[in-house]
Design brief:
Layout (H helix, E strand, L loop, with lengths): L2 H4 L5 H13 L12 H8 L3 H13 L3 E3 L5 E3 L16 E2 L14 H7 L13 H12 L9 E5 L2 H12 L5 E6 L3 H10 L2 E8 L2 E2 L1 H9 L2 E6 L13 H11 L6 E5 L21 E6 L1 H4 L6 E5 L1 H12 L7 H11 L2 H27 L12 E4 L4 H10 L2 E2 L1 E2 L13 E4 L6 H16 L6
Helix pairs in contact: 2-4, 3-4, 7-8, 7-12, 15-16
């Protein structure tokens, strides 16, 4: 039995339910084509607009995707790579993790933050953390700007809630390309349409953003500094150009993900103009206080903050106050602050030193900002990564971070800050051999 024979119904809702049932029972599978609108309408004896409406309902629910001349097909939610260490016997240089020895030790302040329980109805943001965060964001605020703060369970949680309060399924989101893996997950699984915006050495490109807005993007997620995976940071010129483009779309939601914040060696350059109406700046503590802290603070316009609070209010209404107090205690502790400052210098120095090693070995590399290096290779990244595996190294290719895959990536993302000098020398030699050996070129 074909899907055309099996689909039933005389209303858009009934037809959509029939397709869902066939998918659940295994009659339809990922990437199967649904019948053309005209053919199915004739078979069912309904108006073509009824079938169009049914397919629209299925698309909004993420069940199908429209592929132009390729027709309407059952959506295939392909697995997406995740950050973190891999279960491997190889030396993992693709994890993207901070150095655990450079994360402040919380044991010295734990006792003094657990002094009383928090009950229902109390303020959702710890007073001490709120005061500290207001000062943190004030340095980058626009003159006279009212800032409302929201605390979430990390930056990914913040971005997910920000998009959910502004968008519905099939709305378009402008994402950097290559892109942070969690952003790809968030947009795809929520049923939004990702519009890729190329990234160069100065960050998100102006032409790419303009094209995304022309294509209907209702939100823009941008990393002002230490873009993951490229390490790019916005220049003054690029930030000004992007602000000019966005000034024509004041109600498009701008989300600035400043994930590296206190560890960054670059200034914060915002693309949020003085008249922009929907915006948010997200700062997580995971890179400098550890991924297990799962806490981020968002500064946003009042309307966005109120909508965020409503979304929090429908479930757990606050992030653990123990976690908030612990973050505040560490961020105001002299030893912890010194540890964070030393980590900032360490990451920058180790990345710069490894880039110099590669340059001496014949692979030009300009270190950006962040925990990793974005290394261009003179062949496909997958070929070079496979050659590195045979030498005992596990690297991440740029293919994993791309939204558009017209051709194979020529970049590797390498996390090298925890390598000692001997291991760094060995990796640089092996990478040069893997990339520059004639048989490896494509």
């Amino acid at each position: 039995m074909t899907s055309r024979d099996a689909i039933t119904g005389h209303t858009a809702g009934d037809i959509a339910d029939s397709v869902r049932m066939l998918l659940e029972r295994g009659v339809l599978r990922a990437d199967d084509a649904l019948p053309p609108v005209r053919a199915l309408a004739d078979d069912l004896g309904v108006n073509r607009n009824t079938v169009v409406a049914a397919y629209r309902l299925l698309a909004q629910a993420g069940v199908v995707v429209a592929r132009g001349r390729g027709g309407t097909r059952i959506a295939d939610i392909a697995p997406i790579a995740a950050e973190g260490m891999a279960d491997t016997v190889l030396r993992d240089v693709g994890s993207g993790n901070p150095d655990p020895t450079r994360i402040p030790d919380p044991s010295g302040v734990l006792a003094r933050v657990a002094h009383r329980p928090v009950l229902y109805g109390e303020p959702v943001v710890d007073h001490g953390l709120e005061a500290w965060a207001r000062a943190w964001f004030a340095a980058d605020a626009r003159a006279g700007e009212r800032v409302d703060l929201t605390v979430t369970g990390g930056a990914v949680d913040a971005v997910e809630r920000l998009l959910a309060q502004a968008l519905t399924r099939d709305d378009a989101v402008a994402l950097e390309d290559p892109c942070f893996l969690a952003s790809i997950h968030t947009v795809r699984l929520a049923g939004y349409r990702a519009i890729p915006v190329p990234v160069d050495a100065e960050g998100m490109t102006v032409a790419g953003l303009r094209d995304a807005l022309a294509a209907g993007a209702r939100a823009v997620v941008i990393t002002p500094r230490a873009q993951n995976p490229t390490g790019a940071s916005l220049s003054d010129r690029r930030a000004a150009e992007l602000r000019a483009v966005l000034s024509e779309h004041p109600y498009v939601l701008i989300i600035e993900d400043d994930h590296f914040s206190l560890l960054s060696t670059r200034p914060y350059r915002s693309v949020i103009g003085p008249e922009h109406r929907r915006w948010a700046r997200v700062r997580s503590v995971s890179k400098f206080l550890g991924p297990d802290m799962c806490l981020a603070v968002t500064a946003s316009d009042p309307v966005t903050a109120e909508r965020m609070s409503l979304r929090l209010g429908s479930g757990t209404t606050w992030v653990s106050h123990l976690l908030q107090r612990l973050a505040h205690a560490l961020l105001t502790d002299d030893d912890a602050v010194a540890t964070i400052a030393a980590a900032r210098e360490h990451y920058a120095a180790r990345n710069s030193a490894f880039a110099d090693r590669l340059s001496r070995a014949g692979l030009a590399c300009v270190p950006g900002d962040g925990l990793s290096l974005w290394v261009e290779v003179p062949g496909t990244a997958r070929t070079v990564a496979d050659a590195l595996m045979r030498r005992g190294w596990l690297a991440r290719t740029g293919d994993e971070f791309r939204l558009s895959a017209d051709e194979p990536s020529r970049h590797l993302r390498l996390t090298v800050h925890d390598l000692d000098d001997d291991d760094a020398d060995a990796l640089a030699r092996d990478l040069a051999a893997a990339a520059l050996t004639p048989s490896r070129k494509v």
